[in-house]
Amino acid sequence: MNVCTRSLLLAAGLMLIPAICAPNVRADAAEAHYRLALSHKKAGKLEDAEREARLAVLQRPDHAAAHYTLGSLLRQRNQLEDALISFRRVRELEPTNGPGFAGEGSVLLRLKRFDEAVMALRQAVALDPADNTSLANLGNALRKQGKTDEAIATYRRALAKDPENLELLNNLSVALRNEGKTTEALQLLERALQERPNDAALNENMAKALRSEKRYAEAIPHYEKALAFNSRNSGGWFDLGYCYEQTKQKQQAVSAYKKHLELERLSGAKDTEHVTERINKLEGK
To answer: Dihedral, CA atoms, 38, 39, 43, 47, nearest 10 degrees?
Structure first.
């Protein structure tokens, strides 16, 4: 028999003692639900984990760690607006710690609210300079804002801490290519592809960098590899068709352009006349 139960029995009807004991009972229950949430999350049982995390914050609305776990689960399940609410609650409860700002910034980035994302992520990095994930996300948000120079500098800071991070290498290569620094972008991509030769994003960015240098024949195998993993990439099919066309491979160019047209029409696009004209010209019509 626990202390609260014994006290209630001794009090014989007094209502004061339950009021005193209740907060401790709620706190214990909240912690139990929180621990269960972590256990379910680790096991990949996301629905069960979310349910337990919700019960934890219901029992203890000031449980910052439970709010953070709930936000992480909601983000993972792509419930972004709800995740944002949870992370902002963490930020309110712990305004001098970074996780709430980090979570908020990551969600805002996915919601394409880049100005807000930059503000949250700057705060996350300021509060926790060791948070390299937030630093990388800050680079992504800055690049989406069009602040490419600052994005490049931010990616470089993140890479200095984690030089083998292929996602960072890839994102830095995109920013460099956007700034016309294609030679360095290619060097980074070659390095990354040595570690992950079949990665779709790396191959697509390598293809785009080579295409921008008019190295069409070299770009083709990278486009082909990327499209093998993501065959619904309409823009990739057009770029591949263009590279085939530039290397005088007419039949392959027509096939790629037609695949691009098929995907564009499925998405409801109407501005496809220029592609039809290319196909007709290649087919001699």
So the answer is: -60
